[in-house]
User: Fold this.
Amino acid sequence: MSTILIIEDESRIAGFIAKGLKAAGFTSHTTSSGIDGAALAIHGDFDLIVLDVGLPDIDGFEVLERIRGQGVAVPVIMLTARSSVEDRVAGLEGGADDYMPKPFSFEELLARIRLRLRSDAVPTATAQSATQLSHGGLVLDYRSRRAQVDGVWVDLSAREFALAETFLRNAGQVLSREQLLSSVWGFDHDPGSNVVDVYVRYLRGKLGRERFETVRGMGYRLI
Ligand code: CA
Assistant:
């Protein structure tokens, strides 16, 4: 299992990332301090670091400099302001592997995290199984971003794929609309939106109506 270090002082965003990572099967550790974050990155055993630029003590660039200065090559994804091209350039030049402009959906961040973890991974049988997720005759393939239903390939949109993935990772559990919204649409979603119901309908149409059970007043469950 991969362990991810989150260095972010905004608790809402840090919590949103940690929650999403947990649902996706990762373990994470969060710190709001750049100084602590750099020390953890250097002395801890992390597979990837999500690093915010704006931190209360030292900024993300300084953290990156300390980490890389100690020869730590762990992949770093920086969280930058949407408008700041300078931040992105500085981050990549400073040794970041990727950047994620704020605001972002968890799905986007997860895709980048997976990509970074995979490019580090050895292509063995483990990597093979890490590219697919399956449950009850339903298979999701990360490379082709498609689903296989009882042996037949089905195309999915990015959102449909992310939603299907959330269901597969939590098969048999009831997932509330709120959980599905924050995991697939990110922290910028409108809580009153019916987008989850719409997309569950799409998935039912593509992957089989009977797989997605409506649990009245609570949410949905993959059977
Ligand atoms: Ca911040």
User: Anything to note?
Assistant: The first strand starts at residue 3 and ends at 7. Confidence is low (pLDDT under 50) at residues 121-128.
